[in-house]
């Protein structure tokens, strides 16, 4: 059973590892295509947040955000493979930040093809988020093994 669980964690984490590897290979000096895709979406998201909440999202360089995302995905995936809850929390943090920004279905009309595409990807990432929450919940619900206290052996003559 432990081997099957390990294989499941490897397959699940492969989504994040392959994504991080692709972004790392395409990074370049400006953050690569991921930064070019994320910059206008982040600007739109920050305007949306500031108009609805009044909170001003700080500006920062996209290549640093992409580098941080690559690092979080890679470290979280490796920790997750070995069954660490910290890895699951890192992947949760990544999903929580990236999903509503990249898959901004709320900026499109419901009749358009882009809306359907973004909404489907958003739902897939929501399912990954749920699977991570399930892993954390199961990890915390299983009692840890306690060492058995050895009873002292009686001396025999």
TrEMBL record:
Signal peptide: 1-22
Superkingdom of the organism of origin: Eukaryota
Keywords, comma-separated and alphabetical: Membrane, Signal, Transmembrane, Transmembrane helix
Transmembrane stretches, start-end: 126-142
Protein name according to UniProt: HR-like lesion-inducer
């Amino acid at each position: 059973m432990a081997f099957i669980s390990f294989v499941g964690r490897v397959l699940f984490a492969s989504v994040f590892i392959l994504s991080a590897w692709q972004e790392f290979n395409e990074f370049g000096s400006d953050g690569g295509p991921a930064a070019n895709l994320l910059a206008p979406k982040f600007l739109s998201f920050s305007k949306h947040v500031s108009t609805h909440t009044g909170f001003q999202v700080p500006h920062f360089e996209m290549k640093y955000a992409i580098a941080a995302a690559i690092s979080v995905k890679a470290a979280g995936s490796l920790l997750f493979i070995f069954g660490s809850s910290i890895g699951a929390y890192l992947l949760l943090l990544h999903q929580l930040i990236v999903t509503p920004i990249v898959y901004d279905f709320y900026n499109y009309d419901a009749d358009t093809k882009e809306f359907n595409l973004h909404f489907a990807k958003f739902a897939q990432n929501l399912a990954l988020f749920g699977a991570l929450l399930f892993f954390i919940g199961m990890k915390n619900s299983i009692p840890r093994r306690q060492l058995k206290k050895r009873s002292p052996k009686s001396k025999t003559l």
